[in-house]
Each structure stands twice: as structure tokens, then as C-alpha cells.
Amino acid sequence: MTARIGVVTFPGTLDDQDSLRAVRIAGAEPVSLWHRDKDLHQVDAVVLAGGFSYGDYLRAGAISRFSPVMETIIEQAKAGMPVLGICNGFQILTEAHLLPGAMLRNNHLHFICRDQKLKVENAETAWTSDYASGQEISVPLKNMDGRYVADEHTLDELEAEGRVAFRYLDTNPNGSLRDIAGITNAAGNVVGLMPHPEHAVEPLIGTGRTDGLGFFTSILKKLVNA
């Protein structure tokens, strides 16, 4: 049997179907998860997809963090279950304190939608092992509250521990400190990033490249070989 990867839908989630499709293309079994259901239905990993859950009221991800499904995800993530947060999912992970720091409004105060070059900084997490450290990839980016911030001590700690997973290349699209596009927890099972790898898994859509597919093949290989 192949790995089962769940994708959570909150009110306002936009990219759950794209994430489910990416999981399927990678060769895993996609499982839809509803935010009000605490049961993860025996999935082996979870994706928190992008969008504008609860309309980004209060703060992006602040309400979703308290959805019933998050109680189980937080518990399972701390026990080692792989969790990927994409865009709004990354915001939810910071609100849930599964990842440090916070996401603020883009420094130019505009919504941005573009293809974005990234540098892979950590290729040893559950979600990035199919990449090489230093590899350059291009995936779509679309956000309004995408500016990653943290205090200097936290930033220094992330750098020292190799927990910066991705950095923006060529241009910093939102003012994120130290060009950080994505980070991981210390264990490497929880990863969050603002760009959208699920939109770059087949040549027909997104960037016209498959640079984002490695997220989903990485986790599949880890789960199958576990």
C-alpha cells in the first residue's frame, strides 16, 4: 500500500484541490480532511494548503489555528508526523507555534502573484530530501501577508541550526527578514513556506516546470522507506 497524505480544507482554503492533485501525481494516496473533524483518518502526513482561511480575519491563520483538526495535527506533529504548510498553511503553523516567527503584511502593502526563484537551503527534511542543498527552483508565489519576521535571537538560531529551508533569490518579494521563504522545525518533520510548490508539479500549469514536485516525492519516499 502507498502512503496516505491528508490535505486540510478550512473555510476559505483555495488550494486544497491543487495539493490533493500534487499528492496523486507524486504517487501517494490523497485524503481530504475537514477542519471540524479531529479524526485524521489514518493519514501518514498532512498538508495545510494555501488560501485565505476565515478571510484572514484577526490575522492570517489566527482563527484556523483553533479548528478542531489542528488539535490532532499539533499533537501528531510533536510526535513526529510530517506536516507541510503552504502559504496560509505556513501562517497557521506559526500561529500554532509549530514553527517560530510570524507572518506580516507584505512590506509594499500589495498582493503579489508571480513566479519566484528559490534557493534550497536544507535538503534533509521530510519534505525536501529530493532536492540538493543549493539547488535553485522556481515556483509560483501569491500572497498578501507573506513577510516572515522573527526576533534576532530566533533568526540566529534558525541560521545556526540549518532550519532555514528556502530563501528568495534575485528579489525579496515581500520584505521577509534574511530573504527567508520557508523554514523547518528542529526535527525536520514540519516545514512551512510561502511559495506554492503544488502549482508546479506538471508542465501544463503554473511555471511550466515541475520544480515543486520534489516536496511530494520527498515525503512519499520517506514514508514508503520508513
TrEMBL record:
Location (main, coarse): cytoplasm
Record: active site: C87 (nucleophile), H196, E198
EC id: 6.3.5.3, 3.5.1.2
GO terms assigned for molecular function: ATP binding; glutaminase activity; phosphoribosylformylglycinamidine synthase activity
Keyword Protein biosynthesis: no
Catalyzed reaction equations: N(2)-formyl-N(1)-(5-phospho-beta-D-ribosyl)glycinamide + L-glutamine + ATP + H2O = 2-formamido-N(1)-(5-O-phospho-beta-D-ribosyl)acetamidine + L-glutamate + ADP + phosphate + H(+); L-glutamine + H2O = L-glutamate + NH4(+)
PROSITE patterns: GATASE_TYPE_1
HAMAP family: PurQ (MF_00421)
This protein's name: Phosphoribosylformylglycinamidine synthase subunit PurQ
